[in-house]
Amino acid sequence: MTGDAKADGVLARKGLIRRLPEAWRQPLAVVGAVLAVGWLVVALAAPLLAPHDPLAQDLPRLAAPGPGHWFGTDQLGRDILSRVMYGARVSIPLTLLLVALSVLIGGLLGACAGYFGRWVDETIMRLADLVFAFPTVILAMVVAAALGASLANAVLAVLVVAWPAYARVTRGLVLGVRGREFVLSGRLLGFSAWRSLRVDVLPNVTGPVLVLATLDIGTALLLLSGLSFLGLGAKPPSPEWGAMVASGVEVFDSWWVATFPGLAILTVVLAFNFLGDTLRDALDPRTARAIKERAL
Amino acid sequence: MQEQEGAALPPRPATPLDGGGEPVSPGPGAPPARPAARRRGGHPLARFLVRRILMAVLLAWGITLVTFVLTNLVPGDPVAANLGQRALGDPAIVAQWRADHGLDKPLWEQYLLHLQGLTHGDLGTSQQSHRPVSEDLAEFVPATLELAGAAILVSLVLGVAFGVVAALRRDRLPDHLLRVLSLIGISVPTFWLALVAFYVFFYRLQITPGSGRVDPALGAAPGVTGLQTVDALLAGRWDIFVSAAGHLITPALVLALYTIGLLTRFTRSAVLEVLGQDYVRAARAKGLPGRVILFRYVLRSALVPIITVAGLAFGSLLSGTVLVEAIFAWPGVGQYAYKSATTLDLPAVMGVGLVVGIVYLVINLIVDVLYGIIDPRVRLQ
Asked: Which range marks the domain in which residue B188 is found?
């Protein structure tokens, strides 16, 4: 930490807001925003948009894409377009909830670690180190398998591997502002530790953490659908995208069964990666780097 | 400028090995860091190595604890997963099974037994294959290492090349193009891409061989490394090498796409950071040719963060193998992990978690050591 004034988180956050319009003028951000909004609309309006019941098995089996069923039908005679649309209602809200919980848990733990230091810091960060010592899918898979295969447990498993990134970033940012004059003077004025954290420290941390969260939505969705693909998440007949790709493996010949749900995952992840990437560039470069270093 | 120097240290992601490394802080009035470090115990590089290795050992112990606790403190019931309906109805059989697998002892005792076994290389017996887990893993690890090794090589070559091009053509067409491509690379679901690649290249175009590691008609190459391509070369079996390399190429490329994207982005920012340094400007002012500046000045310092990221990227490759191996029927740890996780084969799950965790740990340790060797400033931190 060089401690120069420009690294101040408050300035970084103001910079983010000031530069937002500029960021929105970037083609990548526009594409990302359009894709993301499009998928949110699909998720909200799936019952209105979908041409068929996603669970009804009343169409010809394994029909190739064509008029009447644009994305084809699967081996049980279900309309894939409708299933992909309803899949947005499964995957997108769960992913958003997942990331929100990771931010909350990781952020809180990281803030405590950075603010209180000593054994609190040691305990929390060594725990984070341990999670980092495993490749993510392996750990998530072990957790999900141990808890039993269900979508809720898959979410829990992703949560277990996702929180430490936020703990590290938040801790680093809190360490950066903890010793600054405005925090110290707050404490001298008699603020409690909790109030000081809430009023003086957290506002300096939220901007970068939110950008990291945007970038993390994609990773979380990939991991969650990956677990479902492995049979450790959503159970049939749920129209979850990862599970749909897995069912496409069985009917390899009918390429459309796996292709369209996979494209759905790809476009959602891409949307949030485009958005997050542009937002990160709009941030103060030093904080941006801190995020990038830890977002792996 | 001393302060700036510190800030200009290449970005280095916090690795699992970061924790606990006490900074060398000389007491008040002590001479500067270097002599102090010398006096306290030999060469700074040696001190650095010892500290890193101690941390790694501590983390390895943590990994044994985590895998053990995770596979034991959770509601999944291995008895139900392994015994049939009829056997489950008979309490005597259930009790016998639990006793056979040491499940009737208190948890801490199970853990001590587990640790004791580990010191003898005993990872327990797989409840599915009825073979020692260490034997199973010995069979599957080389296949995964070959796949992940090929993928990391491809990623390093392409990722670094793309990153350098993007940095040198900053804000021009190649940079924008590579940015979009690398973002797509980190956004593609690996398991889906594997399926698409298998369908297109094997099933439709028939330009790549199918699943497995080598054409069954040829048989595996005899050898010691367990890496088909290397063994075939050592044995002078050109036909097996071609077959093995052909089988390797598609899964390795699928696996590498994510890390290529990652490394491209990291290399770009690392090179850009170095390009702005005074010594690069000085080299340019001296009139050195661009090639010399790039290789001798820029890439050399940019290499440090790139190597670190490559170590971490290896972790995501190991993760990816679980998703890719299933599609390509690649007989590696990924498939084994998946099978044992879904059947709640506790010893096998523990073995995979442990071995993959340790492999990852060792790779990060190597990265840390390389880092200390390449950049002398790190040793004194």
From this structure: 132-340
